[in-house]
Amino acid sequence: MNYTLQEIADKIGASVHGDGNCQITSLATLADANIGNIAFLSNSKYKSQLTNTKASAVIVNEECLADCPSNALVMKNPYIGYAIVAQLLDTTPKPASNLHQSAVIDESATLGSNVTIGANSVIESGVTLGNNVSIGAGCFIGKNAVIGENTSLWANVTVYHQVEIGNNCLVQSNTVIGSDGFGYANDKGRWVKIPQLGTVIIGNNVEIGASTTIDRGALGNTVINDGVILDNQIQIAHNVEIGSGTAMAACSVIAGSTKIGENCTIAGLVGINGHIDITDNCMFTGMTMVTKSIKEPGVYSSGMPCAPNKEWNKSNARIRKLDTVNVKIKALEQALNELKAQMQN
């Protein structure tokens, strides 16, 4: 795929400085770029690489233009420009290219136009696949599931019965959508399973990483709203709702019946308790433990950064003595108050 620099500028909303007819064939980093490559600078950490880059063009902001030795595309946010150019030059194949002869497709399933299904996939009864849906090899789509137009599932994705996935979604390999939530009642030490009778409803333009699990609702539904992006190896429990535009990084977990607001950012290894509400526009830094509802937008943290082992051991030893220190401080405060009272008398 070849684009002229001017064609790319028109698509990303940038202005051309230099030769608009320069041919671009691929993306590269500033350090690795050669003729035909376009690079970008969005992090000042890499500004030193700009003056020596061999890229045919670089996406930069106005402040860095003077230091750019090559053709340039100038825009306010070069990282957004990079994202759009990456889409233009993307060479990722579709998960499947045809209806493979080894795929098992129930005769009652409804397939839209231009649907592709990979080898050894199973499409059960009552399934509806919209136009341009692509199902990778080894996938399982359960009874009465619905998958919207232009949605792609990579290899070995499992979609349980009655799950609904919207349009323009992307699901990476080994993800499971609609598995049973962790619902049990305890009868004097014996766990009694509670069938999970709800399902999972996923909106439009949602992307889900590899090996992520989204449990179906116990009675109501688990809901992932439009524009949500989920990283790899995330656990979302039954009856969770995630608001539109929220992003969640790898290995984070949300317990059951919690509602996450819109446009939240959840970093890696965050744990969110069940039966709580998180308002819109919250950010949780890595390893934060959220134990109660959050009603005010803002940035929240609780994870403890690493430290040299000796320093950590000393700090840990002090933390273990906090109760004793607290008792002593209260005793000293009481003695001080008694001394002040005596002096006043």
UniProtKB/TrEMBL annotation:
Pathway field: Bacterial outer membrane biogenesis; LPS lipid A biosynthesis
EC number: 2.3.1.191
Active site: H238
CDD domains in the cross-refs: LbH_LpxD
Lineage top rank: taxon: Bacteria
Family the UniProt entry places it in: Belongs to the transferase hexapeptide repeat family. LpxD subfamily.
Alphabetical list of NCBIfam families matching this protein: lipid_A_lpxD, PRK00892.1
Protein's job: Catalyzes the N-acylation of UDP-3-O-acylglucosamine using 3-hydroxyacyl-ACP as the acyl donor. Is involved in the biosynthesis of lipid A, a phosphorylated glycolipid that anchors the lipopolysaccharide to the outer membrane of the cell.
Protein known as: UDP-3-O-acylglucosamine N-acyltransferase
Native source organism of the sequence: Thalassotalea profundi
